[in-house]
Amino acid sequence: MGGVVEQEVEMLVKCGWWLLALCVALAVAAPAGARDKERPKDAVAVSGSGVGVAPGAPTWVREKIQEIHAGKIENGGSDEPGTVLGPQARKRATWFGCRDVYAFRGYDHFAGYNLFRYYQQVSWCSNGYSIYSWSRYRWAELNFPGWAFDGHVDSYLGGSSTHKRAFTQGSFHTCYFGWCDYKVPWVAIEVYASGYWSANTGG
């Protein structure tokens, strides 16, 4: 009789250990399964542009822009030799001086806070007939942990003496629990000797 009681106690102890191991396994597996099923919500694309130096622009960008306005940099952003004056040179000058514009493309978390922004800044000086000095600067702004900037992946600088175009594209990524998200925002800015400008973004 004593042997039967000992066997029952031993069986209960073994069952208890198995039950405990099963509970621990389920507790560990449940969050992992939930993580696999819950894909992070998509980030929301944002963009903007304006006249002046971009808010939060790095110090080196601000210093370069000051040099442009002081006449120390000519064609700092151009990859083409100067060209002859176009038809606009025969028209009356409507604007002259130096101007700075910027545009950005970024993404916000669905809850509203910013993840990152990709900026392009263009500064140019015109005598009213032609652009005699211009430059382009670009940089990334990371505003949330987990996102990384992988560098600039595309660029174009060109135009004529009366019109300049600057295009840039950057690459960003983030990874959580084996799931990765990649973004390749681009920014294009066009400026004119008349002082007019436009910006487009995407990606």
Structure in a nutshell:
This protein is an alpha+beta fold and 203 residues long.
User: Strand count, sense and closure of the main sheet?
Assistant: 5 strands, antiparallel
Given helix and strand content, the structural type is alpha+beta
Number of helices: 2
Give the total of domains.
2
Shape: elongated
Entry keywords:
203 residues, 2 domains, five-stranded antiparallel beta sheet, four-stranded antiparallel beta sheet, 9 strands, 44% strand
Description:
- This protein has helices at residues 2-37, 59-69, and strands spanning 44-51, 97-108, 114-126, 131-142, 148-159, 163-176, 179-183, 186-192, 197-202.
- Strands 5, 6, 7, 8 and 9 form a five-stranded antiparallel sheet that branches. A four-stranded antiparallel sheet has the order 1-2-3-4, covered by helices on one side.
- The chain is built from two helices and nine strands.
- It has two domains: 1-38; 44-202, no CATH class.
- A hairpin with a 2-residue loop joins strand 6 (163-176) and strand 7.
- The chain is an alpha+beta fold and 203 residues long.
Task: Present the secondary structure layout.
Layout: H1 2-37, E1 44-51, H2 59-69, E2 97-108, E3 114-126, E4 131-142, E5 148-159, E6 163-176, E7 179-183, E8 186-192, E9 197-202
Antiparallel strand pairs: 1-2, 2-3, 3-4, 5-6, 6-7, 6-8, 8-9
